[in-house]
Amino acid sequence: MPKRRWIIAGVVAGLLGLAVGATAVAAPSIAAIACPQCYGLSSLGDGVYAERDDAAYHRTVDAAEQRISAFYGERTSDARVLICATAECYRSIGGGGEKGQAFGRWALRLSPDGANETIATHELAHIELHQRLGSEYESVPDWFDEGLAVLISDDPRYLDPANGGNRCRVPYEEAAPIVDADWATFGEPGSDRKYLLAACVVSHWVDEHGGAAGVLIMISDMRSGKRFSELQ
């Protein structure tokens, strides 16, 4: 019997080894999150890994985390952050043409063009919302998830300054149809217009629901079983 156990253990270990190898080839993003050092990223402390040992990267992430805390009152997520200084590095960890990307509630990666406070905040905003919603995070419409991330990051590409009242950069009536759109296929390829529209609609939604407090109520209601469509 002991010999049989050793045989089974060996088979399991072999299968796990094959699975890890396949993951590294087919899904470098997952492999890089699990082992940043394997992709040439060095630890800067507190879960931040970067291709270049530059304290400015850590300051960028710290500033982004402070924005999340300022909006929600506190930060509940604790994501691993991968930052590339070169396009080659970003491609090696599975990146494409995006400036950054969040992965569920656990990690994000930033490209050379995305290693700034605005993009870092945007991706951390996704992770914070997903962390707070728990298993309900997939029930939130993509337009709301993306628009809220734009709002929290205060991205000037898609929103007018906060001191101007209405923050939409397009007429609200023009933006409103985004709520019924398929986010994955909406708009022309390569166009980021949908972020402009989502930001407009979400900024109105947040204003109408009492600001950040309304988002917290939405999260609580969804965790208790309500659908997003019931909260509008």
Describe the protein.
There is one protein chain. The protein is an alpha/beta fold. 50% of the residues lie in helices and 8% in strands. It has 9 helices and 5 strands. Strand 1 (42-45) and strand 2 (48-50) form a beta hairpin. Helix 6 packs across helix 8. The radius of gyration is 20 Å and the shape is globular.
Would you kindly provide a brief summary of this structure?
This protein is of the alpha/beta class and 232 residues long.
Feature tags:
single chain; about 230 residues; alpha/beta; Zincin-like; 2 domains; five-stranded mixed β-sheet; 9 helices; 5 strands; disordered N terminus; TAT_signal
Class of the largest domain, according to the CATH hierarchy?
Alpha Beta
Sheet with the most strands: spatial strand order: 1-2-3-5-4
- Mean pLDDT comes to 89
Distance between the termini: 62 Å
Uncertain segments:
1-26
CATH architecture title of the largest domain: 2-Layer Sandwich
**In angstroms, what is the radius of gyration?**
20 Å
- Enter the CATH topology name of the largest domain: Zincin-like
| Number of contiguous helices | 9
Largest sheet data: 5 strands, mixed
Structural class comes to alpha/beta
Q: Count up the domains.
A: 2
Say how many strands there are.
5
Helix content: 40-55%
InterPro entries: TAT_signal
Keywords: Signal
Signal peptide: 1-26
Protein name: Peptidase MA superfamily protein
Topology:
Elements: H1 2-26, H2 28-34, E1 42-45, E2 48-50, H3 55-72, E3 80-83, H4 87-92, E4 100-103, E5 107-110, H5 117-133, H6 142-153, H7 172-175, H8 193-208, H9 212-223
Parallel strand pairs: 2-3, 3-5
Antiparallel strand pairs: 1-2, 4-5
Helix pairs in contact: 1-2, 3-5, 5-6, 6-8
